[in-house]
Request: fold
Amino acid sequence: MPEHTDIPAPSTFGQRVQRARERTGKTRAVVAGLMDQSTEWVKAIETGRIGMPRLPKLLRLAHVLGVEDIAELTGDERIAATTYSKAQHGALPAMKRALTTYQLALADREPEPADVLAARLRQAWKLWHARDRRTGPRDTVEGNRSRIVALLPNLLADTQHAARALEGTDRRRALVALAETYHLAQLFLSFQPAPELVVLTGDRAMTAAQDADSPRAIASAAWYVNHVHRDAGEAAEARVELAEQAAALLPDRDDPDHIARRGLLYLAAALSYAKTGQAGDAWWYWDKADAAARQLGDDYAHPWLMFGRGIVDGYAVTMWNDLVQPGKALQVADSLDLDRIPSATRRSYHLIETARAYNLTGERVAAVSLLKKAYAESPETIEYNLHTRSVLPELVKSGPRMVRDDALGLARDLGVPV
Reply:
């Protein structure tokens, strides 16, 4: 006779995770440590406040729980490829060619002066941060990635040539320009299915900054390398050490640019610790970034790194989300002044993060509304955002009826299958 039990079979992803964890005898704290997450994150997974993670983290969770067949966790839930894969921009192959083409002989032309390269970079940064504009008879959107990818291959070739051909101070300035060009390339590549190119651009930018012997360039490179490490799930301590070393190189004087870059590095450390659930350390570093922002004043924003009051507050929302405390994220968001962020791409990102907080609290109507606002700010920013691509199918199928059509329309605009 089969043994009967009154215990119902787990019906949700979170319940299946809890069953697997309890079967192995692991506490939530143990699983959290093995996953480099907080205990609150594990609890949120098991109680359904956080949905199924993307495939790399899902596979790691299965390994930690000793689950050989991932279907034991996913059950009958369909794992949509769009939830776990990144959408590809049409110009990605051209960007890849530009980054992997090597000019072994010096070009038969004079290198552009460092001042000219710096001016071209200023224009490229303006195009990146500007609001998307509509062009052509069909009102086609030209996004931030589409704008800068038209400039990057030539800018990359010219800065590389200048860094090789120039000498002395001019060469160091060209190397600084080259590092910045790699930063732009890294931004284009973010949320693209090319992780090896993201790592490549981060490493090349740091190498160029070190060759230039420029503390300011090294600080900027450390900020962008920090993002690479954080997204790859590496140990927070390694990222923090990099940020601290770069901050220590900056001269300790009341120069707004130095204060902004140092504050940005403190913010990088704060985000790293929040990602791994170490709240005390995270907020200690955020306080240091906050002090730098207050020193610069409410109206200050770095011309291309955008450090200032706006993004320090905006990233506090991200930190509370990563610490799985969306209620506190929304308290910060209530007073967040996006007008202090002179960048459409950054404003769109922080709107998405606020939508993430609303989604975590079950307030789906507000989440859809903010995703639509993020789309209005910068369509390409939200189009390639992984949270947006993963949550929209769920909102279309099981969100409040009054916003399902809005979610469906947004998914279609972004090319997200539902």
